[in-house]
């Protein structure tokens, strides 16, 4: 199944499970029915029901998201859906947080390729699913780990950075 959206980088859940951001290719899906949900701050949520079968083993969804009435994209939280009032409403079902620490402290934290601060750091509104946390500190070896963020939970990550000799 291939899922794309305008605008791109919208969050995708399949049967309530976080799968990533558009454009997204999902492989290895079994035949059956799937409920696909596409969310982007400041836009109305798109929902599609998709059935994969022997006759139609692949599907492509291309969704043009509609701007939510009264929503201001600049005030919505990352990964959040706009509420009916247009204010940010971060649904706990789609986000969690990560608390990152390191030994020694003061390492640069990079989440999914984007710098987000230095240790110790609490990173809120992280979409549920797998993420890569990388720690960088001058004169130390890079450290990275893949971690899973659960709905409404804080995931602890602590890295031990070895000095370069």
Task: Give the termini separation.
Answer: 48 Å
The domain tally reads: 2
Question: Describe the biggest sheet?
Answer: 4 strands, antiparallel
CATH topology of the largest domain: Immunoglobulin-like
**DSSP E strands, number:** 16
Overall mean pLDDT score? 81
Strand order of the largest sheet: 3-2-5-6
Write the element-wise H/E pattern from the N-terminal end onward.
EEEEEEEEEEEEEEEE
In one word, what is the shape? Answer: elongated
Q: Which ranges are low-confidence, i.e. pLDDT below 50, for 5 or more consecutive residues?
A: 71-92
State the helix count: 0
CATH class annotation of the largest domain: Mainly Beta
Name of the CATH architecture of the largest domain = Sandwich
For this structure, the quaternary state is single chain
Radius of gyration: 18 Å
Helix content: under 10%
Structural class category: mainly beta
* CATH H level, superfamily name of the largest domain: Immunoglobulins
Percent of residues in beta strands: over 45%
Molecular structure report:
There is one protein chain. The model is unreliable at 71-92 (pLDDT under 50). The protein has no helices and 16 strands. β14 (129-136) and β15 (143-149) form a beta hairpin. 0% of the residues lie in helices and 53% in strands. The chain folds into 2 domains: 2-89, Immunoglobulin-like; 95-160, Carboxypeptidase-like, regulatory domain (Immunoglobulin-like, Sandwich). The chain has 165 residues and is mainly β. The termini are far apart. Strands 3-2-5-6 form a 4-stranded antiparallel beta sheet, with no helix packed on it. It has a 4-stranded antiparallel beta sheet with strand order 12-11-14-15, with no helix packed on it. The protein has a 3-stranded mixed beta sheet with strand order 4-1-7, with no helix packed on it. The chain is elongated, with a radius of gyration of 18 Å.
């Amino acid at each position: 199944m291939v899922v794309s959206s305008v605008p791109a980088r919208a969050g995708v859940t399949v049967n309530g499970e976080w799968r990533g951001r558009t454009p997204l290719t999902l492989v290895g899906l079994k035949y059956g029915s799937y409920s696909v949900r596409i969310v982007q701050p400041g836009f109305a949520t798109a929902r599609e029901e998709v059935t994969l079968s022997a006759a139609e083993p692949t599907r492509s969804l291309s969704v043009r998201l509609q701007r939510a009435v009264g929503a201001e994209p600049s005030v919505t939280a990352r990964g959040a859906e706009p509420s009916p009032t247009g204010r940010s409403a971060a649904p706990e079902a789609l986000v969690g947080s990560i608390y990152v620490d390191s030994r020694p402290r003061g390492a640069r934290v990079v989440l999914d390729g984007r710098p987000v601060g230095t240790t110790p750091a609490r990173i809120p509104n992280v979409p549920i699913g797998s993420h890569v946390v990388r720690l960088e500190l001058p004169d130390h070896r890079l450290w990275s780990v893949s971690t899973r963020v659960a709905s409404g939970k804080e995931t602890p990550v602590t890295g031990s950075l070895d000095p370069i000799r």
